[in-house]
Amino acid sequence: MTKESINKKLREAALNTSTKAYAPYSHFHIGSAVLMESGKIFSGCNVENASYGATICAERVAILKAISEGETKIKKIYVYSKDGWPPCGLCRQVICEFAADDLEVILGDQEGNEKNIPFKDLFPAGFTPDKLK
Ligand code: ZN
Questions:
Q1: What spacing in Å lies between the alpha carbon of 89 and ligand 1's midpoint?
Q2: CATH homologous superfamily, domain 3-132
Q3: Ligand 1: distance of its center to the CA of 79 in Å?
Q4: Which residues, 6+ apart, have CB-to-CB distance to 80 below 8 Å?
Q5: Is 59 noted as a catalytic residue in this protein?
Q6: Distance CA 4, CA 21 (A)
Q7: Exposure winner among 3, 36, 74, 80, fewest CB in 10 A?
Q8: Average pLDDT of every residue of the chain
Q9: Is the pLDDT of residue 3 over 90?
Q10: pTM
Q11: What is the pLDDT of residues 82-101, one digit of tens each?
């Protein structure tokens, strides 16, 4: 599969999942899709909560779905939002835990624009699992 077709699949998964977002408070519908080292793709949407702190972002939903299926290395992550927002700090830390060395983050917006950012540039001094060894 070509890089372009993988990115297209990730965008479709993220965009489709964004329509399932539970966002009665912010009304921001976010979708994310992760490509794992095995080649499997998992997607997630944001799930808000009346107790705002219990809200979980689309990126973490996608990652937790992958982890719950035994996948632990993220090769690519696509984040879809209306304006192409990047992952929040909390999501960056969770991504960091499972990031492949060459993890690429793709930010897509509703116009079809995409920005590709190496995860290392997005989160340069992350707290990685090896710090605890
Ligand atoms: Zn987040």
A1: 6
A2: Cytidine Deaminase, domain 2 (3.40.140.10)
A3: 10
A4: 11, 14, 15, 18, 30, 31, 32, 33, 58, 108, 109
A5: yes
A6: 26
A7: 3
A8: 97
A9: no
A10: 0.95
A11: 999 999 999 999 999 999 99
